[in-house]
Amino acid sequence: MNYSLLLVEILVAVLGLGVLLADLWIPAEHRRKLGYAAAAGLTLIFFVGLSDVTETSYAFTAPGARTGMYVFDSLSVFFKEFFLLAGIIVMLLSVAFSDRFTTGVSEFFSLTLFALLGMLFAASANDFVLMFAALELITITFVVLNSYQRNRAASIEAGVKYLILGALASAIMVFGIALVFGSANTTNFNEIFLAQKQLAGNPVFLAGLAMVLGGLAFKVAAVPFQVWAPDVYQGSPAPATAFLAVGSKAAGFVLLLRVLFGVVPQITAQWNHLLVVIAALTILYGSLCAIPQRSLKRLMGYSSIANAGYLLIGFASVSKAGAAGVLFYLGGYLFTVLATFTVLCVILRHTDSDDISSLAGLGQRSPVLAGVLSLSMVSLAGIPPLAGFFGKFLLLKSIVMLGVRDPAYYCLLAVALLGVVISLYYYFGVIKAVYWGGGAVDLSPIPLDWPVRISLTVCVLGMFWLGVFPDHVVKLSTPAVEVLKPEAPASLHEKGR
Amino acid sequence: MSLLNTLILTPFLTALLILAIPGNYRFVIRCLALLGSGFTAVLGTVLFFRYAPGTPGYQFDESAIWVSSSILRLNYHVAVDGIAAGMLLVTALVGFAAVAVSWEIERQSKLFYLLLLMIIGGALGAFASLDLFFFYFFNELALVPTFIMIGVWGRGEERTYAAYKITLYLTAGALVGLTGLIALYSASGASSLDLLDLQRQVAKTPIAPAMQSFIFLCLVFGFGTLVGLWPFHSWAPQGYACAPTATAMLHAGILKKAGLFVLLRVAYPLLPDAVAQWSWILGVLCVGNLLYCGFVALRQRDLNLLIGNSSLAHMGFAFLGLASVNVIGITGTVLVMVSHALLAALSFALSGWLRHQTGTTDLGKMGGLLRRMPFIGTVLVLCFLAGCGVPGFANFAGELSVLFGAWNGLPVIVVAAAWAGLILGGVYMLRALRQILQGESREPLKGVLDAVGLWRQLPFALLAAGLLFFGIFPNVLVNRVKPAASAVVRLATTLTPAAPVKAAPTRTAAPAK
User: How many other C-beta atoms are found inside a 10 Å radius of the C-beta of residue B52?
Assistant: First the structure.
């Protein structure tokens, strides 16, 4: 077997174990530095670990088979880069946040690395079994990460909720996988793709597939599996929430891309209305529920639901353009959300409250933090010149013309526009609090240490880079989706331009 | 770097420079902002006079490929036609004036000038863009600065409400417009959002009429909201009343015109069938602007609300010219756009001065101010007379052309409404003049100061001079605008033949490069 394909995964696993072992010998007051070491290691892996994709290759192949459980292709490389970048920034965040943990700083770093490992495997999953194993690795590490502040009831609550609902979602998914295996006689993505014509009429297979999609919908926080997100986001430690919002969600989306567009495109084409409805409901639920929120972390929870809805627009379009839009949008979302949580980590250290009103006076206390937080809100709202705008532009572009043949898409478009207008209200509420929120008591300047500065710089540059010079990432995401094979649904079949 | 690119980039580069300066160096920051915007104003003037009048087509053409991939191609493409030349000139002038009148900003002035320069650069970029993506991109740059400026430096208790209202209205409008632009791009089958590409493609294979209607209505209602088209106008007066002076000047003067600009540039030339079918909508709704907003202005006790509503009434003339779909009407629309940019900016600058000196914008609490502030009073008289449409000011030329155009193309009743709107304008403008400048001088107003010295007087003098210049020599502007307006009208009235045409139609895709 060609182990060089798994180089990144192996290195990350070794790094995680290394951090865990190093904890034994390093005295407690120096353990924070392990986080820097881990971030440096990840940076090294990011720059040297990934080779260029020349052709799709497989690992974990059965003897004589041409396909395997693990695939190394352009899509997986795009997401591996994505996860590693997210991992580096989250690691810096964790270091900045780590003085709030009473115990086990290095375990937090190493658990973050193992969650990252799960995501890296998810990016390459080519088999329902590997997919499940990768997702379980993510879920279980996040249960611990979410409840890491053991002395805070909210954190424990978040962990328990994530544990119970995550276990439920896993159970649904594994049941679905069993049904898929029972009807298709295989769990390999390529083999199911070849057999999908016969399987499309098999109700057992369809039921199994629907249950698998349910499990993935839990990961991305799409309606009707979205209820956990706000509570867990609010209760978890900020770095864990950040990684949950970016990494875990993206892992769900890469698997959705693979399953919907790579494994069963013909069935997806029949289910396009279901995707339209789920996308619309997710946008509406996230946007409407975010309006009355007072806690910034909870607001980000609802915002992450709404953003899942926008990303699902790309799926509803059932096209490669939509899939490329999903990739670009996730890229922008990475920088935006991590910028928000970096600011949040610093603020939490100084005010001990994530209430939006506690942001009052931030414009005077730290113009840098105020500026970055405002920029990330603007990017989330989808306003130029930042990344969020170009992502939304690509996604909306993928469905505008579909409305002519199928009015359902006009409805989705209207809901999406409504969602953007609503989202402006709550995102700009944060900007308002930052610049002219009343009742600021403490106006002392907030100092910034250098990991926070690095993280903020990377995120802001990323937001502007993707917003003003989108060419590079568009060029990355277009070939990445070439491995997918979406098929236009029957309702859109007509000769068009 | 070419003249046009320098013009667009100067405000952004100035903003970057200011970003690098610590916030407590207020004087340096203000000087830099003045320098940057002053340079922009000079460049805008040079560009306007170097633009060769009387020739159709685009000049100062610059383009670069921005995004090229299989799913999307975008060009950075800027160029100037007669319409854009006029708008770029007034944008640069009003931008400089807005920076110049902002001497009263003391809190967080670094942020203020950053945001202000961003609005100016965005507006310049929008008027110069031929690529529709970049038009939208530049135009939306103003949104967040507006919100923050109204909130932080705004006036009055209601400013948070006003900030939200203006932001939500403008976003909703812009998004509907964006839908129209994307639909246009997809339906035309052009390879990019470049206007010239779109024109070539539409000339070859016109868009189906039903799709044209959808796009046209998206553009009219979406971008119309940005202009303050009745009944989507209520954000405007309140937003201006609560905004700091500079923001109100730029918004009422410049940013509003971007909506009209895109209708002229995109909706009319590319969607001729929809224009034939739907331009009456503008004819009906503009009566709302002319009369409804006129009557609302008549009732105002607050100077800012009066100016805000009267500026909406003036937009009625712009829409009226659009609805007439003939060369003189469209030319008139552009004249109204240019002259109203100067007028609205001057009005808000004056009202900002009055408010700063008297501490109020309530007309009932002012009086006898002409004796105390002869310079400001004189400019105010000039400004409001221009607002009434008195000959000798730029607005006269615009409104007269629009009325001529409407007389040719529209029912008499619409023309009558425009005429009534003019009379209403005369009534409330002159009444406001009397209340502010004449009568008994009130006790609390003893300490008010006139604008003294070159720096304080310059922004007012500059804008008033612009109004007078284009009023006395309207031909300078008309010569530049008319070829572009003729091209718009020619394309807008070339209907798609009823039977499907196989061969390419013989008409040209002018204005060509």
Answer: 11
Confirm whether B508 is domain-assigned. Answer: no
Burial class (CB in 10 A: 0-12, 13-18, 19+), B94: buried
Cβ proximity of B11 and B95 under 8 Å = yes
Structure token digits, residue B420: 């009534």
Q: Which structural domain range is residue A460 located in?
A: 273-497
Our measurement of the distance from residue A448's CA atom to the centroid of its chain's CA atoms, rounded to an integer in Å, reads 27
Q: Answer whether residue B498 is part of any domain.
A: no
**Of B203, B54, B188, which Cα lies nearest the Cα of B508?**
B203
Is residue A132 assigned to a domain? no
Contact between A302 and A295 under an 8 Å Cβ cutoff? The reply is no
Structural domain that includes position B449: 3-492
What pLDDT is stored for residue B39 in this prediction?
93
Residues pairing with A57 in the sheet: A72
Non-local CB neighbours of B419 within 8 Å, separated by 6+ positions: B403
The 3-class secondary structure across B171-189, one letter per residue, is HHHHHHHHHHHHHHHHHHC
Helix/strand/coil for A459: helix
What integer pLDDT is reported at residue A406 of this predicted model?
A: 84
Task: Provide ipTM, 2 decimals.
Answer: 0.86
Please give the backbone phi and psi of residue A260, each rounded to the nearest 5 degrees, phi first: -75, -45
Q: For the residues of B298-310, what is the DSSP string, one character each?
A: HT--BHHHHHHHH
Please indicate if any CB of chain B lies within 8 Å of the CB of A160: no
- Single-letter amino acid code for the residue at B482: K
User: Total domain count for chain A?
Assistant: 1
CA distance B63 to chain A (A): 15
Confidence of residue B367 (pLDDT cuts 50, 70, 90): confident
> What's the pLDDT tens digit per position in A376-397?
999 999 888 898 899 999 898 8
Whether pLDDT at B27 is above 70: yes
Terminal-to-terminal C-alpha distance of chain A = 46
- Residue A387: closest C-alpha in chain B: B137
**Cα gap A3→A43, rounded to integer Å:** 21
Give B67's strand partners: B74
A428 close contact with B: CB closer than 8 A: yes
Q: What angle do CA B8, B10, B13 make, to 5 degrees?
A: 120
Which residue intervals of A125-271 are DSSP H helices? 128-146, 153-184, 189-199, 203-220, 228-235, 238-243, 249-257, 265-270
Q: Under 8 Å CB-to-CB from B337, ≥6 apart: which residues?
A: B86, B87, B257, B260, B261, B318, B398
| Contact state of A400 with B70 under an 8 Å Cβ cutoff | no
Q: Smallest Cα–Cα separation from A328: which of A253, A265, A234, A383?
A: A253
Number of domains making up chain B:
1
Give the integer Cα–Cα distance in Å for A379 and A371. Answer: 12
Sequence-separated (6 or more) residues with CB below 8 Å from residue B201: B188, B189, B190, B191
| Inside any domain, residue B503 | no
State the number of CA atoms in the 13 A half-sphere of A87 facing the CB. Answer: 35
* Residue A357: both structure tokens together: 């009103």
| A427 neighbourhood in chain B, CB within 8 Å | none
Q: Indicate the SS3 state at residue B362.
A: strand
- Overall size of chain B counted in residues: 513
Contact status of B76 with chain A (Cβ, < 8 Å): no
Locate A311 and state its tokens. Answer: 């990303």
Give the global pTM. 0.90
- In chain A, the residue whose alpha carbon lies closest to the alpha carbon of B176 is A417
Q: Residue B35 to residues B44, B100, B117: CA-CA distances in angstroms? A: 14, 10, 11
Is residue B422 a contact partner of residue B348, using CB atoms and an 8 Å limit?
no
Nearest to B151 among A320, A404, A435 (CB): A435
B174 domain-assigned: yes
* CB A129, CB A173: distance < 8 Å: no
